[in-house]
Amino acid sequence: SVGVEEVARRARAAARAAQSLSTGAKDAALAEMYDALAGARDEIVCANEIDREATLAAVEAGKQSRTLYKRLDLGGAKFDAMLTGVRSVMGLDDPVGKVSLARELDDGLELYRVACPIGVICIIFEARPEAAVQISSLSVKSANAVILKGGKEAEHSNRALVRAIRKGLEIAGLPQDMVQLVSTRGEIAQLLKLDKYIDLVIPRGSNELVRYITDHTRIPVLGHADGICAVYVDKSADLNKAVSIVCDAKTQYPAVCNAAESLIIHREVVGSHLPAIADALLAAGVSMRVDPSALDVLGERTDSGSRVTLASEDDFVTEFLELVLAVKVVDSIDDAIEHINSHGSHHTDSIVAEDKSAAEAFLSGIDSANVYHNCSTRFADGFRYGFGAEVGVSTTRTHSRGPVGLEGLLIYKY
Predict the structure, then answer these.
(1) Which residues have a Cβ under 8 Å from the Cβ of 83 and sit 6 or more positions away?
(2) Helix (H, G, I), strand (E, B) or coil at 266
(3) Which of 16, 52, 190, 327 has the highest CB neighbour number within 10 Å of its CB?
């Protein structure tokens, strides 16, 4: 097998060759990648089954979470959506070479700022094998080379996917090494030392993973960690909107980083709004960990076997990724903003309110990558934003924040 430094060296060579590719050449490569993935569907799904069976055994033995198992699935509609993502990226405008500044400094002296690829990007992700396809598609369209390091739990799936992607690149006449996969955990430490070849590292996973990477590399890191997202129900909130938004944010797909983990509610509507919200959540199978003020209102729902219990402080800084929601009552919108900024992960937060000034205060006061008014946190997604796909959701304050699509994989030159 090829050593890690050789993988990085090949990626650098592929990135240099890719810089001058035409839009047509890149879109033709994406079309071939689509066909290769569609043609290898049975092989990929079989490989995915191997991963899922091994992970299910680990779940039953108490060694892995059920959330991880759910995220591994690549069958049926998920495979179709993955292919649709490739087509969507093909349909995007090519941002490479776009001029964002043009200025005549003197007679015959013109200055331009032009978008160009970052170069070599290393993306380290856990579970979610479809991420390999999203990332590869965006990398090809933006003329970057990518080194993928997936989690051990998706090892067979990732190999099958990357094999098909590289076949598509080869048929299209593009460098196969625009997309490479490394598979062992030990290779991460080696990759992080290769600042000579790698321009950017994007970790997708737990806070522990992101922290480990930022602590062990000189390469710039575009971080994506936990999604501790909150919905704040303001005193001006419409009850039906509150019930609908909170339930969607928590229950539509709880195993993802843009699902709500906390409900913050204004004291003036805790009596009128919280019971209806709680009943809808409980009917959907949600367990609620509530503060004393919320417990007072929901007292009759705390009978034996109830899923309404007293919250601990840790519950408000926990990414549950399952049907569990922490609930806190606040005295003002300022208290809500302060709580979310100090307990959340700066990913996605939403206010339910009819008062426009309250909404504006929330939108300007919350320090998160995505901030919404009367909208579910589940909306935070590159595909929904019209980006075609996403590399991840950045919670850092670098050149790219929120869902990272094509533009997040570009830099510029003068």
Answers:
(1) 34, 37, 38
(2) strand
(3) 327
**3-state class percentages of the chain: helix first, strand second, coil last, to nearest 5:** 50, 20, 30
Could you give the residue ranges of the DSSP H alpha helices within 222-351? 239-251, 270-283, 292-297, 333-343
- Would you list the DSSP string of 361-391? HHHHH--SSEEEESS-GGG--TTTTTSSS-S
Phi, psi for residue 46 in degrees, rounded to 5: -65, -45
CA distance 254 to 317: 16
Exposed/middle/buried for residue 176 (C-beta within 10 Å: 0-12, 13-18, 19+) = middle
Residue 309 tokens, joined: 């219990």
Span 160-196, pLDDT tens digits: 999 999 999 999 999 999 999 998 778 889 999 999 9
Long-range contacts of 88-92 (CB under 8 A, 24+ apart): 88/383, 88/388, 88/389, 89/30, 89/137, 89/138, 89/140, 89/141, 89/388, 89/389, 89/406, 90/27, 90/30, 90/31, 90/34, 90/141, 91/388, 92/141, 92/387, 92/388, 92/406
Helical H runs in 101-176?
130-141, 155-172
> From CA 328, how far away is CA 277, in angstroms rounded?
13
Read off the pLDDT of each residue in 109-134 and give the average, rounded to a whole number.
94
Q: Is a pLDDT exceeding 90 seen at residue 346?
A: yes
Intra-chain end-to-end CA distance of the chain, in Å: 40
pLDDT given at position 303: 64
Q: What is the pTM of this model?
A: 0.85
